[in-house]
Design a protein that fits this description.
The chain is of the alpha+beta class. It is built from 17 helices and 22 strands. Helix 2 runs parallel beside helix 3, helix 15 packs antiparallel against helix 17 and helix 16 packs across helix 17.
């Protein structure tokens, strides 16, 4: 099953009762059950008796709506029709979602007699119908069977699920208008280029295109098409929360929050639905998504009614609680939009300016699309990119936002420092030349303190996310008297510097290591002194050089590599605080404590850096052993 076979909350003919949903969540009940009916090629599918037992369990939990997902041939299977008949006899509401290839005239009549709602998938390759009325040219035969059987009518609706993909958005509008002309209920289904779970090639339409489409469909509705909804609240293209009161059972009996979200909660052959609903910790979290969802979805102005698509979040970020990567509220500037030339507007210059191009700002976020250069201070000779540069890029995007707010055309009025990082995760490796999309948004602004969150995407895949704390200032902080020490000793030639480091930032940090030792308790101690020609000072900031926070974090990883004699790759960073700026020629005392994680080759480390006996920086990071080669 592919992720595109989903229409969100649209599988609810007649709408949803929010009070009833809250009551069901509180009382650990179900309101609906989704059943996948597989084609003949699937192995170990549930027997008719097992499916009936599942339906009885769901009824006992309060389910009143049953959605049969036709994976191929269900409506030609008498067992499927018998199950629908049993659901209706027990007072349940039945919905069939089908492509209709096995839908005969007799079956259409039987579905109508049973009062089964039908949602018919329009074939992706089929053109839009021509004309109006019950039998226009181009009307598929099996859809005509449903119309001839009396669909739609009070008590049994007929919906048309329209694929949104390569077939073209204008075609979607035509099918939508045609559906309304027949009294049908149109809805949308996202499609993908190939099997998203295997190829991960991304959606065939962008969030901006989806937003435009939603606006056009909203205009159709406003002109008398039916529902009263805006393009923002359009449920077909936004998230759904059906898993709060629903479960899905695959053809093989696996229980999931929904069919698109591949989180197995159990199997009906091994445990009943009552135990899963009552005791499963994952489902308990899924039924209260707004307490767990993070990123933009958590702070969005619509978070009270939308939690994004958890299936898409897991697909592209490996985290079901990440913000929805395809949400247009996050990805598309809206309202009062401003274009900012980041090269001119940020205070970072020279090799320490990592951004290029035009950032787009609205009142909620800043967005920048750019391609990583082939060379840079965080890029190794083989094109490997040290992922910490992504955090600095997010901070620089915040500086562009600040420059716009201040009306500073060249960044000269932008003063401030990155003073904290938390919940930093590097999910995918990146390489020189990769196209990236950066997004930052404010989560807290209190006097001079600004807390932001940011994400970096390569195509639809999340590669990094971070929470940053920045402090705004009227001017750059002045150096402390007597801080510099020109008498700092040269590097100890006995230090076993790693030979695999080839990026300019890494080599510059290694040149700053003056002393290194391993203490009796295993802690690593070092003294660093960054000379004025250190590459991290070049443009950070002109006339007021300080070691960038990401440089201090990188130093901790390099010291761990010296101590372990292993090539490491950053995976995470938390509780990073930068309390005092580190300037040229100042001796910096560093302590690194490493603990190995059981069962793998990764490490966790705590780092503390002192200037004159006072804490200048501290943080914790996680890293894995690199697969081989240099960087």
């Amino acid at each position: 099953m592919m992720i595109q076979r989903c229409g969100g909350n649209q599988d609810w003919p007649g709408g949803r009762d929010e009070a009833e949903i809250e009551s069901a969540v509180r009382d650990k009940r179900l309101l609906s059950l989704e059943l996948e009916w597989a084609g003949s090629g699937r192995m170990r599918t549930l027997s008719p008796a097992e499916r009936e037992a599942v339906v009885e369990q769901a009824l006992a939990l309060g389910a009143r709506r049953f959605i049969l997902q036709d994976g191929g041939g269900a409506l030609a299977d008498r067992d499927a029709l018998a199950l629908l008949r049993r659901i209706r006899s027990r007072g349940g509401e039945a919905v069939v979602i089908t492509g209709g290839r096995s839908l005969s005239r007799a079956v259409a009549g039987e579905l109508a007699d049973l009062g089964v709602h039908v949602i018919w998938r329009w074939p992706a390759r089929r053109p839009a119908p021509i004309g109006r009325g019950a039998a226009p040219a181009g009307l598929p035969r099996n859809l005509a069977h449903l119309l001839s059987a009396g669909y739609p009518a009070p008590g049994f609706s007929l919906g048309i699920r329209i694929p949104v993909g390569r077939s073209g958005l204008r075609k979607v509008e035509k099918i939508w208008r045609w559906s309304r002309s027949l009294g049908l209920t149109p809805s949308l289904e996202r499609t993908w280029r190939g099997d998203a779970r295997e190829t991960r090639r991304g959606p065939s339409v962008s969030p901006a295109e989806l937003r435009t489409l939603a606006g056009r469909l909203a205009a159709i509705e406003a002109r008398g098409g039916g529902s009263d909804w805006s393009s923002r609240t359009f449920p077909a293209l936004f998230g759904c929360d059906r898993f709060r009161t629903s479960l899905a059972v695959t053809a093989e009996g696996d229980v999931r929050p929904c069919l698109g979200l591949g989180l197995k909660l159990g199997n009906v052959r091994e445990t009943d639905l009552g135990r899963i609903v009552g005791n499963d910790p994952v489902l308990a979290e899924m039924r209260n998504p707004r307490t767990k969802v993070n990123g933009f979805c958590r702070t969005c102005g619509f978070a009270a009614t939308c939690s994004g698509c958890r299936a898409l979040a897991r697909l592209w970020t490996d985290d079901p609680w990440a913000s929805d990567p395809e949400c247009w509220e996050k990805n598309v500037p809206a309202g009062d939009v401003h274009a900012v030339d980041v090269v001119r507007r940020i205070p970072h210059k020279g090799p320490m300016r990592f951004l290029r191009g035009t950032a787009w700002l609205d009142d909620k976020k800043a967005i920048l699309a750019m391609r990583l250069p082939r060379r840079g201070v965080f890029i190794a000779r083989d094109g490997t990119v040290i992922p910490l540069v992504l955090v600095e890029m997010l901070a620089q995007l915040c500086a562009a936002q600040r420059a716009h707010d201040l009306g500073s055309p060249d960044g000269s009025r932008v003063h401030g420092y990155l003073v904290g990082m938390d919940h930093v995760h590097f999910r995918k490796p990146i390489a020189a030349g990769d196209p990236l999309r950066l997004i930052v948004w404010n989560t807290l602004e209190l006097n001079e303190i600004n807390r932001v969150e940011g994400e970096v995407f390569r195509g639809p895949e999340l590669v990094a996310r971070a929470e940053l704390t920045l402090i705004k200032a009227e001017t750059w902080l002045a150096p402390e008297d007597g801080a510099a020490n020109d008498a700092s000793p040269a590097a100890d030639p006995r230090i076993p510097f790693p030979g695999w480091v080839s990026d300019p930032m890494g080599r510059g940090i290694l040149r700053a290591v003056r002393r290194f030792e391993v203490e009796a308790d295993g802690a690593l101690r070092a003294v660093l002194r960054f000379d004025p020609d250190f590459v991290g000072f070049d443009g950070h900031f002109p006339g007021h050089p300080v070691v960038p926070g990401v440089g201090l974090v990188y130093a901790g990883l390099l010291l761990a590599e010296i101590g372990l004699g292993r090539n490491l790759v950053f995976r995470s960073l938390k509780r990073a605080r930068f309390l005092k700026p580190v300037r040229p020629s100042v001796p910096l005392d560093v302590q690194v404590r490493i603990s190995r994680r059981d069962g793998d080759s990764g490490i966790a480390a705590e780092v503390k850096m002192l200037l004159g006996g006072e804490t200048a920086a501290k943080y914790e990071f996680g890293a894995d052993e690199a697969g081989g080669g240099g960087r």
